[in-house]
Amino acid sequence: MPIISSSTSAFYERSRTNMKDLRKEAEKLQAQLGSGQKLSRSSDNPVAASRLRTLSRQESISSIDTTNANRANADLSLADSAMSSMGSAIIRAQELAGQASNSTLTDEQRGAIAVEMDQIFQDLVALANSRASNGQALFGGEAAGDAYSIDASGNAVYIGTASSGDLPIGDGQTVGRSMTGPQILNFTDANGNATDILSTIKALSNALKGGVANPAGAASDSLDVLRVGLDNLTTSQTVVGTRLAWLDVVADRRVEISELRDTEQADLGSTDIPSTVAQLQETMTVLEASQASFTRLANLSLFDNLR
Amino acid sequence: MGADLISIASSGARAAKAALNITANNISNASSEGYVRRSVHLSELAANSSAGSPAAINLAGVRISGIVRNADAFRQSEVRRTGADAARANAEVKGLENIESAIEATGVYDSIVGFETGLQQLLSDPVDGSLRASVLERGRSLAQTFNVASNSLDAVANGLNFEATDGVSTVNRISGELARVNLRLARASDASSDQTTLLDQRDLLLQELSQHIDISTSIGTGGVVSVTIGGPSGPALVNGGNSGTLEMATAADGTISFTMDGNPATISSGSLAGQSQALTEVASSRIKLDAIAKSIVDTVNAAQANGVDLTGATGSPIFSGTGAADMAMIATSGEQIATAPAGSPAGSRDPGNLTAIKSALAAANPAGAMDTLLFGVSSAVAGRAVTRDALESIASNAKVALQAQSGVDLDQEAVNLVRFQQAFQASGRVMQIASDIFDSILSIR
Fold it and tell me: What is the mean pLDDT of residues B197-225?
């Protein structure tokens, strides 16, 4: 008949198991505090780990979307300023056409205006060939190099592609990175003829140099055409401005989504420090108590009292 | 009668001394693994009454009728059964955790996402050399990560196979030893000190054996044990002085099977069963990992062929290989990524085919498949870990219950020590009294 219902080795085995479990628990809590992460490996919580993987994937894709959006923003801003400069050049051309339409001017005076008109033509071609942030033509669609070239007779010819590329900016949204030359410069005049600013100015310059019988009349006719062309350019500029505003909206939305993602990541994977510390304290208290009681019980031997 | 008193006292002193020896033996073996507490069984020594006076009182003292081993066969078999379950669960969880590390810690998922984001970034400027080089390098690190994950899985399978091989040879060694113990048990005399030691050894060997495979035991005459694998009707491992041979075969996919003396044997518990289950898991994880690698290789290469690269040539494959182990990046320059649709001139900025590659990859969804694989393995680990913890606590309870019943309690031994010391002293006192009585007879004048 045993005195206590347990053998010595059973007592030690039980105490060892209990203290080992408590210590393991304390170390797990300590690791959570040390790393700031609740999950040290996926199997700690498979569902949360899978969600965290998806979130971090969205995070990396979102950071690429941000660079793409920044690039689109830069290109559209460049297009905007180039179109403003084009607008000023066309307005100057209108002023000159207005002067040239005065029939009292001499041929020499018209010739001088034609020289300036040629300069405006070259400025416009240069502006139409301006470069985007990646070094390619801003208004040339997806072609490499220039958007316009000058043919043998001195006319500007569009050599780009029909559309400019779209950039994905996240959330399934895309934005056109620029406009093509024909989109901003080609239009239909009041008489229903398809034409473009560059050829209009070139034709006007030729007329002022004496290419037609009535240069003043030609200059006066071109005033209307130039007005329609300027309207068309301004409309295109509005489109670019709207796209820039759209980029801002999408960027705001991206930041909001990213904040939501961060919150979810923190909820799923980060250590809740106050409650973890409290849990650790509780475990440590229990561990200390069981160590103390183990020491006292282990010291309790009948042999000590046998003399 | 007087002389009898001395012999009675000497038998008492002998019995007390034997009991003291047993107590001392118990104390010194208090922490020996597998030691079962002994106690002395004493009975009265009955002298034959003489034929002439059958009613006469005959007192002859005490004798040691045997050394009792306080083992509970049921608790021992519970320790073996629960221990085998816990060992199986432990081996399986350990293997699964290694699989999890092999495919999670290598970062396959992150490198798939890296490749996808590289393609996404190339969209912003398909002719940019540095972006093309970045896609190429991300593809290379993707292929290498798959190689590393595959090698890690190989290492896990090798480790498990090594452990299982070791387990099989341990099982064969223990069954050989059990057969020898059986032979000696058959020769040992009943209730002798020799027999109790052999029985201790037998039980310890059985407990050790149950860590590796699930066994059924039946105890025959004289404590001779026969062991079968699985249930009582399973193939015999130890029968009397004979032991069978367990053998292991490894299939091409790394899974293992067992044969007992040439006949197929099913092992459903113990560490060998756990290792076998983990190896099956390795094989299925490898199939899934290979499928993901193959889907990336096939998808990207097929989409490449539909477009033209930066030089205007039809896109050539950029990945080679058919699985995770042999996947490799074979493109040598970023120019070889076919971003433009077929028929485009050299240097085209048209991202038509790049978009096609991206959407083909999105449809194949390797990141999603990888996530599913990781989720499957990690939730298997989480689930089995719960089972393992439960089985371990059951096994530990069974072990404590057995120890509480059959182990040495030092306090009880201290009491026994005092008790048998007193018995010895009392027998000595009886001898002195016998001597005094004899002296008083002699001193009659």
Answer: 90
pLDDT greater than 90 at residue A108: no
| Parent domain of A152 | 54-265
Residues B249 and B308: beta-carbon distance below 8 Å? no
Quote the Cα angle for B268-B269-B272, to 5°.
95
DSSP classification of residue B223: G
| Contact map slice: B 352-411 vs A, CB within 8 A | 367, 371, 374-375, 377-379, 381-382, 385, 396, 399-400, 403-411
**What per-residue confidence (pLDDT) applies to B12?**
92
Q: Taking 80 as the threshold, does the pLDDT of residue B185 lie above it? A: yes
Gap from B442 CA to chain A (nearest CA, Å): 40
Q: Tell me whether residues B415 and A53 touch, CB distance under 8 A.
A: no
The pLDDT confidence band at residue A6, using thresholds 50, 70 and 90, is confident
* Chain B residues within an 8 Å CB radius of A160: none
Mutate to test the interface with B, among A3, A6, A8, A21 (most CBs of B within 10 A): A8
Q: How confident is the model at residue B176 (pLDDT cuts 50, 70, 90)?
A: very high
Of residues B70 and B93, the one with the higher pLDDT is B93
Instruction: Give the alpha-carbon dihedral of A134, A137, A138, A140, to 10 degrees.
Output: -130
CA dist list (Å): B133 to A63, B70, B354: 19, 77, 15
Per the CB < 8 Å rule, is B412 touching A167?
no
Give the gap in angstroms from C-alpha B410 to the nearest C-alpha of chain A: 6
pLDDT at B1 over 50: no
Q: Which of A39, A19, A22, A34 is nearest to A277 (CA)?
A: A34
- Nearest neighbour of B410 by CB, restricted to A47, A142, A301: A301
A64 with B117: Cβ contact below 8 A:
yes
- CATH code assigned at A209: 1.20.1330.10
* Number of folded domains that form chain A: 1
CB spacing of A9 vs B406 below 8 angstroms: no
Residue A133 lies inside a defined structural domain of this protein: yes
Interface size, chain A vs chain B, as Cβ–Cβ contacts under 8 Å: 140
Residues in B touching A2 (Cβ below 8 Å): 409, 412
Quick check: is A166 in a domain?
Answer: yes
Domain assignment present for A91: yes
Q: Does some domain include residue A304?
A: no
Does an H or E element contain A157, and which?
strand A156-158
Q: Is B35 helix (H, G, I), strand (E, B) or coil?
A: coil
Which ipTM was obtained for this model?
A: 0.77
Q: What is the mean pLDDT of residues A209-232?
A: 86
Q: What is the amino acid identity at position A216?
A: A
Write the pLDDT tens digit of every residue in A36-65: 888 888 888 889 999 999 999 989 988 988
Q: Tell if the CB–CB gap between B349 and A8 is shorter than 8 Å.
A: no
